[in-house]
Amino acid sequence: MLAEFGLAALWLAAALAALQIYAGLWGWRQPQGAVAALAKPVAVMQAALVSAAFVSLILLFLRTDLSVKLVVANSHAAKPWLYKFAGTWGNHEGSMLLWVTVLAVAGALVALLEKRLEPKTLVATLGAQALIGLGFYGFLLIASNPFARQFPAATEGMGLNPLLQDPGLAFHPPTLYFGYVGISIAFAFAVGALITRDVGPAFARAMRPWVLISWVFLTIGIVAGSYWAYYELGWGGWWFWDPVENASLMPWLAATALLHSVTVLATRDGLRAWTVMLAVVAFSMSMVGTFLVRSGILTSVHSFAVDPERGSFLLMLLGLYIGGALALFGLRVGTVREGNQFDPLSREGGLVLNNLLLSVLLAIVFIGTLYPLAAEVLTGEKLSIGPPYFNSVSAAPALILVLLMGAGPLIRWRRDEGGAVARRLIVPAVVLAAAAIGMGLLWGGKIGMLPLLGLIVAAGVAVASVAPLAKRNLRRTPLFTWGMVIAHLGVAVSLAGMASDSAFMQERLVAMKPGETAQIGSFKVRFDTVVPIAGPNWTAVEAQLHVSRDGAGWTKVMRPQSRQFWSPPTETSEAAIETLWDGQLYTVIGKSDGSGGWQMRLWWKPFVTLIWAGGLMIALGGVLALIGRLWREGGADFWKNWRAAGPQPAAKVAKTTGTKPKAAKPTGTRR
């Protein structure tokens, strides 16, 4: 009965989403009326019902209920409980149910917590959010029912894709979904503001926390996914420009531009139309990513659906939502007032240029991702666009963008003077020049031009990132300023890691027999033996490698594995990675040659960990900025209310009690 309960809860949630649309999109004209009053309680009830449906699916997976088709196709009785739990969303139907659950819960939070918007705009926003949700409810109930029964029940499940049987499955997909949903809520705010012609600072302040939350989770999801693929696939790389990787990168680029734009609107009342347009673009990119991953148009470990009917349904939703939003924007953009003006040489001007460069990068990734698919549809010819295109075409705008990011916070709002800006940039410019001279003399001609430029720019931007803290009282510096500094510094750190890995990585593919030694960088790797081992649902051969570093007195035993899963039958490589202060030693065991030798792939990757350390710094900066902004807005109200509840001035007491305060005695001093 648990599956039937979950399905019934899902149907009821869909019905409430339809009611919420009616209450929101038709009730905003009378925000105090009975129809509009339904929007908030219905949003909360909808979230409760869809959450109950998702919890039901989790329990079905934990119990390994083999009368449910989704459990049979994606679970196994012998699978560890963590992968039964995470396997709930390690498939098409479960991931979409998680998506719509997070969307509904976020909508309920908007209904309960949002106090800054005009009532009519809030009601319209809730209606727009429900409209997004209803499409995905329909998709689940019509094309991707997660609670469909199987008769008779199976005797055993088919198991989860072994590549997904990793703790990363419990962490990576949910963070991306939280990011996608945050963008959808920002989109709903934009639609609500367009409907009610209420695009202004209050709308931006209400939207900004959701954009920040989305951006933080997308950052964490991308960083986690990159590291998961790095150690799980045994290929030694951290980014391959795979279409599904790009599907998460495109919303992040759009959300980054939106975050800067909404900040200008919230604090300086500028870029009104641009902010709304970026909200539409960011949501469009999240929908494109959803379509790529779940339509079956791509073959990837990330993609779940292979049914053309599902792809057609998603394509219809894509056209409906994006086309409708663009049509609404076109109809109402004339009603969006211009906002405050600013000079080209100002922080606002720098943020506009920042957004333009982000848009260029987004266009590069978008074209490189979708062009092969479009060409195959139109001509039947299969094309491949890989790292050479993306690396070469995106490098120049990316480096310019990072340089601008370092300079932007040193420019004043509204207008600034060229000489004053130049004086503030002296120290970062000197560091940049010194890095160019020093690194050019040291590595010029020995490493590629792009990695060299990356290292130079990273050095200059690192200094520029912390420059806004100069001459400040650090204890009184706002938390959101610290967030900006840490996030920008994280970009410099990640750039340094990417450039170092590209410039100095060493790789060796060798055939080794027990007792033989190979050299990689400053490390000696001795192959001792191979032993068989068994896991809960796999067997493996494990190499034992004795590793030492020249002149360091450092030794380590590393154990890469080649695993064979039996449900479903799949072979995977489990890399052994040793992390040191200056990089990672990465080892993978391959096939036996039949004569006692084994293939070994060895990498030495200097400072590669800076890539993910910088990514986490970027996310941390976003968290600090979010807390700082919420504290400034909510904390001020708290302090005001606390003071109002405390002892009142004598004049105010006299006014309320009817007594006249005594005049203060002269002190004998004169002003």
Your description of this structure?
It is a single chain. The protein is globular. A hairpin with a 2-residue loop joins strand 8 and strand 9 (583-592). It has helices at residues 2-25, 34-37, 39-63, 69-74, 81-86, 92-113, 119-143, 172-196, 201-232, 243-268, 272-294, 308-332, 347-379, 387-407, 418-424, 426-443, 449-466, 479-504, 609-645, 650-657; strands at residues 506-512, 517-520, 523-534, 538-549, 554-558, 561-566, 569-574, 576-580, 583-592, 598-606. The strands form 2 sheets. Strands 2, 3, 4, 5, 6 and 7 form a 6-stranded antiparallel sheet that branches. Strands 1-10-9-8 form a 4-stranded antiparallel sheet. The chain is of the alpha+beta class and 671 residues long.
Shape: globular
Whole-number count of domains: 4
Radius of gyration: 28 Å
Note the run of SSEs as H and E.
HHHHHHHHHHHHHHHHHHEEEEEEEEEEHH
The rounded distance between the terminal residues' Cα atoms is 84 Å
Summing up helix and strand content along with how strands pair, one would put the structural category as: alpha+beta
| SS element count, helices | 20
Name the beta content range: 5-15%
What's the count of strands? 10
Helix content: 55-70%
How would you sum up the major sheet?
A: 6 strands, antiparallel
Helix-strand blueprint:
Elements: H1 2-25, H2 34-37, H3 39-63, H4 69-74, H5 81-86, H6 92-113, H7 119-143, H8 172-196, H9 201-232, H10 243-268, H11 272-294, H12 308-332, H13 347-379, H14 387-407, H15 418-424, H16 426-443, H17 449-466, H18 479-504, E1 506-512, E2 517-520, E3 523-534, E4 538-549, E5 554-558, E6 561-566, E7 569-574, E8 576-580, E9 583-592, E10 598-606, H19 609-645, H20 650-657
Antiparallel strand pairs: 1-10, 2-3, 3-4, 4-5, 4-6, 6-7, 8-9, 9-10
Helix pairs in contact: 1-3, 1-7, 3-6, 6-7, 6-8, 7-8, 7-12, 8-9, 8-11, 9-10, 9-19, 10-11, 10-13, 11-12, 13-14, 14-17, 16-17, 17-18, 18-19
